[in-house]
Write a structure and sequence with these properties.
This is Gibberellin 2-beta-dioxygenase. InterPro entries: DIOX_N, IPNS-like_FE2OG_OXY, IPNS-like_sf, Iron_ascorbate_oxido_reductase, Oxoglu/Fe-dep_dioxygenase_dom. The chain is α+β, with helices and mostly antiparallel strands. The chain has helices at 9-12, 37-47, 60-74, 78-81, 128-159, 234-239, 278-283, 295-303, and strands spanning 29-31, 50-54, 91-97, 102-114, 117-118, 179-192, 198-203, 209-212, 218-220, 228-232, 249-252, 259-266, 273-274, 293-294. Helix 3 (60-74) crosses helix 5 (128-159). It binds gibberellin A4.
């Protein structure tokens, strides 16, 4: 892959890997309404750190309303979108990813979710009447994502035979939980893992999402508008003492059709201590594969790193 310091949109075509990666028709699909869901989620999280869920119970009309609002937002003139730029890579962003020189071929809206409410500033502008509805959709959508993520985390706990179903889900349900919501409009976003516990993503019917398998090979995930895609994040890899795998992923579209995705990142409260769950640690004879960290420390380290870095490496015990 050719890497350019500060590519123009045309040059970003060069960032595409030279060989197209094979499609992955066997993307693990978990039907949340079946009794096998817990087992299927555990096996997909172990092998891939990635799966899609059907029968998720999220209202189709809510999804399409928010998607339409997002399309409308990205269609605004740049000068309007730029009014939504906030400090520290929040709000509206274009091409710059994070704070350390990473670039992607995308524009985005990145919102912090505090006390169940996504940060609203970018939407609080004229015309206020339409902003009002966007805010409502956004609020309900984020709540639906949190509920879905919590359900999936509970099934993970069931599947791992944990006594408490909320052992993982509790982290994203505390008042101070540090979660994000992101709208991406792109052809491209470089490879990375998500630092949080879990990410729940939905995208328009366009290809481009690729994941890295255990053997290091990349595969392309066929789009599916009716499913949500779930990523295991770095923090969940630690909570499971390495049983689950934080999935390395990227977006590389052909550029023919624009891709819009909506992603919820469920993160713990800043002061939460992230270390393997006691029961799993006991199964592993008390040997933790990771040095404990607080989410505040890990997040600070992540935001000081480059997108493609292996952030967990610094916390691995040998
Ligand atoms: C990846 C997951 C989320 O999109 C994100 C990203 C964040 C950003 O875009 O500002 C980061 C990236 C993400 C990981 C490393 C750091 C931080 C860009 C970057 C170079 C919002 C997040 O939490 O971490």
């Amino acid at each position: 892959m050719v890497v350019l310091a500060n590519p123009s949109p045309d040059e970003i075509f060069l960032l595409k890997p030279s060989k197209p990666c094979p499609s992955f028709p066997d993307t693990p699909a978990v039907d949340l309404s079946t009794p096998a869901a817990a087992r299927d989620i555990v096996s997909a999280s172990t092998e891939f750190g990635f799966f899609k869920v059907t029968n998720h119970g999220v209202s189709k009309s809510l999804i399409s309303k928010l998607e339409a609002a997002a399309v409308e937002f990205f269609a605004l003139p740049d000068v309007e979108k730029e009014k939504a730029v906030l400090a520290n890579s929040f709000g509206y962003g274009n091409r710059e990813i994070g704070r350390n020189g990473d670039v992607g071929w995308l524009e985005y809206l990145l919102l912090e979710v505090a006390d169940n409410s996504p940060m609203l500033l970018p939407f609080l502008k004229e015309p206020l009447h339409s902003s009002f509805w966007y805010i409502c959709y956004l609020h309900h959508y984020v709540l639906a994502m949190k509920k879905l993520a919590t359900g999936v985390l509970e099934l993970m706990a069931d599947g791992l035979g944990m006594e408490r179903r909320n052992v993982f889900g509790k982290y994203i349900n505390e008042e101070k939980s540090d979660s994000f919501f992101r709208l991406n409009h792109y052809p491209g976003f470089g490879e990375h893992t998500d630092p949080q516990i879990i990410s729940v993503m939905r995208s328009t019917n366009s290809d481009g999402l690729e994941i890295s398998l255990r053997d290091g090979n990349w595969v392309s995930i066929p789009p599916d508008r009716d499913s949500f895609f779930v990523n295991v994040g770095d923090s969940l890899q630690v909570l499971t003492n390495g049983r689950f795998r934080s999935v390395r992923h990227r977006v590389v579209t052909t550029g023919v059709r624009s891709r819009l995705s909506m992603i919820y990142f469920g993160g713990p409260p800043p002061c939460a201590r992230i270390s393997p769950a006691d029961e799993l640690l006991a199964e592993d004879q008390g040997r933790s594969r990771y040095t404990e960290f607080t989410w505040a420390d890990y997040k600070a380290a992540a935001f000081n790193s480059r997108l493609a870095d292996n952030r967990l490496r610094h916390f691995e015990n040998h």
